[in-house]
Amino acid sequence: MTTLYQRIAPNERSEPTGIMIESRGSLEPEEAAGNESSAHDSPAASKTITSTTTEVTNNQGKVVLSRSLSTGHLLEWLIHFVAIGISISICLLHFKQVYWTDESILSKRWRWVYLVSLDLNDIIKALQFASKAHEILMVASIGAIVLYFARRRLVRQEGITLGLLMSSYRIDTPANILSSKFWSALGFDASWKTVVLSLLLLVSAILCQLVGPASAGVMQPSLDWWNVSDPYKGQILPLYLSVRSGETYPLALNESNWPLETYDPNSNNFIPENATACLDDASSNFWCPAYGFDVVETWVVSNYQDHATPNITVTGTSGTQRTLTADLIADGTAIAATHSNWVIRMFGLFSLYVKHHSNLTASSITLPMYTSTDPIYAPVVQVQCHAVVATETGTVSFLTDQLTNYTDSGADRYNPQMSWPVPHEAFVLHNKSDAVHFTWVDLSKTQDGRQQTTNMWRPSLGAVAKIPGWVDGRESFYAIPCIIDARWAASSATYQPTISDIVLSNLSSPAALANSTDSTSATPKRKPKPKAISGQQLGIGDAIQIGLNWADALNPLGYMFGHTQNLTSIEAMLDTYVREIENNGTGYGAFTVGVNNNTYLNDTTQLMQAAANTTATILSLAIADGLSRLGDGTWNMVVLNTPGNGNVTWTAIDFDFYPTNSSEASFMKQFTSIRIQVSRYGWAYGWSAVIILDVIVLLMHVSMVVLYAGFHLLYVFCFWDDWWLTNTWNNAAELIILAWDSSPTEVFRNAEKTKSSLWAQNIKVRETPGGDAMELVAGGPNTTFDVGLLRPRGKNMQHI
Prior knowledge:
19 helices, six-stranded antiparallel β-sheet, 41 strands, transmembrane, disordered C terminus, elongated, 800 residues, 32% helix, eight-stranded antiparallel β-sheet
């Protein structure tokens, strides 16, 4: 059979535009089979069995291959460029990290647009519709590219296997790539051109499945916290604490460096704080170590009555809050951590300052989040205690085997053999009517009584508590020696004023800093030294050397017991657990821990262990809270701008607003500074692992279109004779019609052929020997045919 594309004379009767097929000759099936093998070689044979197909287009034969753009070609390129234009646009939104809107004001801003009600759900659905349309365009674009190269192979010298040709029409179907018609082509024709085309089909099929989810992923903005690039309208607005930077996180607290000196903007002088006032009245000043006694005592009462966990919320002077948390990490060993009080005060005052300055971008943010970008350190306190009977005459030592030494220089110091003897006077009892006794022990000296040098490691402080208790049914006292390890640890600070007043910290679970307990191992595994955060060089520091003057300010007198004895703050908290047990009939007050309602421990060993746990927890909380109050009475300042003359303009921030001052930049550098980054909660285009993958998928399609366009430009400028476009065989139906009207081929007659070998046959479209028609020929991978190649010549199809 032949397919004729010929001009119809004007005076001839023509059918409407379409395909006309004449009937076959009257050969019997046996004769048709006998003549089939010579259908290509004998012109006479081809004339014997003839079917003519004529397509009429404006009384012209159809141009199969053309070098001019038609409406169909322009539409195809429009699909390409619209698809990649959308892809590039939405990818740029992510590259530029475009912020859309705050989550809480989205509906207000978009509620009425051109008298149409749009809320969040409407907008998300509209974006889903847009992403689906984008997917259709991209799949159409990929299909057009694949089909072009498949059709190019179809009319070229090498041809294309039937399996690859059919796969090109179903590139969007995943099952097609797994079928035999695709893979059988490589088994029969493994030339590099076939391999390249197969890879193109494989990649395109995978890409067709990925572009839909990728478009949906990048088209919709994400609801999350996003950094504000310029929250202060070109200003930095760093905060400063009016304490010299070297004194903010002291590694020693003694007579020489405590109390701190604070700069007073009103007098323009450094003013020392008064330690005597803290001893006379712990609540006299915010910076006094024992100022937070009431908060810890409230927890102590709740713990005794209701077994409350040591997770305390402390309110600062600016209304912001911090968490004071302790974890019991071993028998008699507790660790506590909290923010510094001046840190949470700064965050509260700064957010108030921003809120009242409408010229700042951050002032209009509905859900802001403030985060420190400069190093911040927080107190972390370990306390190990153990209980013994106070009447023991043997030598009793402080234990350190459960404490963690984080620093590299002292990694081998805390071990079971390292200990300090408890002073004998710590066990001296007065009379049995006495309540709890508590005293500090200075560990600044070596075991032989000499002063330790600065290059020798030692813990922060020691303490001994004596608590009345029962020992084997007799009245006695528990002596509880404790050793204290206090340090500054790298901390983060996050404040979300519209959500919570609490300034969050990464140290909310302090047990994560301590030893990891392994009950199956004789030697506990130590956690590595914490890594630096936010560019900090130090994850956690050496032990703070606490002097007795600061420790006494943490534990002042002033709490009456039985109207006869004046208790200290820590003694008063421990005394909460001293109660008379009604069933003993003696009226003796002893350490008591409840198991549940009206049930209490009565085993001596369990009571002594509970006393050690309770003392360690209270001490860790009280010392951590005391350290957090260093610098709490200082001024807070904000630098407004830094002019080019080297001076800075700054003002003090408080609940009242103060006039601005101008000073040299070096003046402000002596203070502790904090820069705060602002984030906002809302909808924006940003980055995540999934978004990065989605963008890569879209850019793969963009690259495919760009390479496809480059291929055409290369042929236009360098290989003009081989460049062409076609709208023919856009679907398998046109190819089937061409095959139906082509001469019989031997390879398709043999019914014994396997399906895979059938898909591997080379298919080509060639001109008939007469040059006035074309037909579909088939053969093995290396079969050649004595027929002409299709080649465009102007607007007419000609053969070589």
